[in-house]
Amino acid sequence: MADTEKPWCIFLMGPTASGKTALAVELAQRFPMDIISVDSALIYKGMDIGSAKPDAETLKLAPHRLIDFLDPAESYSAADFREDALREMAEITANGRIPLLVGGTMLYFKVLREGIAELPPANDDVRRQLLQEAAERGWPALHADLGQVDPEAAERLNPNDSQRLQRALEVYRSTGVTLSQWHRRQKEGGDGSWGGNFDDFPYRVVNLAVCPERAVLHQRIADRFHQMLEEGFFDEVKSLYLRGDLSPDLPSMRAVGYRQAWDCLDGKLSYAEMVERGIIATRQLAKRQITWLRSWKDLHWLDSLDPNLLEKVLKILSANDMLS
């Protein structure tokens, strides 16, 4: 399909606490747009306060797809998201409306647009072994192990990025082939499923990123974390903790804020330490999100506190004849 024949969609991206949801709701109320959430925490049931899930009133004004549908004990991959998002986008387009994808999980946006390399399936035995080693030796030690067999992946990953370290080592130990080699093979196969080939994506995309200046963003993050606590965030995590079938190794419980609250309930942090580290971890997440966005092509940066924000967004959309 020629690019000019593809339907439009909008990627509305930005760091946590930058004001993405407010802008998305305003757009969805004024124009024929349906929101799809691009957030790895909003998918989980019972994780409402700490994930900043839109409240019932907001969802009534502007329903969000792909939120609140998975139990925290279940896993969900970027590949799962791509399949679900493309299905929802097709339905929205078939109804004559525009998919508005909103969130801060940058890997989801990348995989949706570019596809993902086909990797070997999870190996539960190897995964359990890795989690045991991490408990005994720590993730930085496993990062060093990865550096011995796949220095390219190790350089790319943070020593404490447990989820991705686990997957990289799991792939190598299960197959004898490094994660970097798997990705390289995919590229050499010429299928364009990884590494920035946008040609096969069945939509034309307007890429928007909203973010206030750094000092303002940091203050918003701190204010929001304290507000979440006032709204009952700690009790929310406590109810998950007391279920008995969840653990801090699950992707759901590794979400920023939840991880620190879990450590507090485990007696590893005091309440004050939990608050301090939760805010710091959220600011670090925002920094990673901004760094990632700086590498994204054809991106329109917008100040989320600009009084003319909506007017500027509409100008960008109109320039692409999206609203005609």
Verbal overview:
With 324 residues, this protein is α/β, with parallel strands linked by helices. It folds into 2 domains: 3-116 and 193-319, P-loop containing nucleotide triphosphate hydrolases (Rossmann fold, 3-Layer(aba) Sandwich); 124-188, Orthogonal Bundle (Histone, subunit A), CATH 1.10.20. The protein is built from 14 helices and 6 strands. It has helices at 20-30, 56-61, 78-94, 106-114, 124-137, 139-149, 151-156, 162-175, 179-188, 214-230, 233-241, 258-265, 271-293, 309-319, and strands at residues 8-13, 33-38, 64-65, 98-103, 204-210, 299-302. Strands 3-2-4-1-5-6 form a 6-stranded parallel sheet, with helices on both faces. Helix 2 links the parallel strand 2 (33-38) and strand 3. Helix 11 crosses helix 12. The longest helix is centred in the C-terminal third of the chain and has 23 residues, at 271-293. The protein is globular. The relative contact order is 0.16.
H/E element order: EHEHEHEHHHHHHEHHHHEH
Q: How many beta-strand runs?
A: 6
Let me know the average pLDDT: 91
CATH top level label of the largest domain: Alpha Beta
Note the total helix count. 14
Which terms summarize this structure?
alpha/beta; Rossmann fold; 2 domains; six-stranded parallel sheet; 14 helices
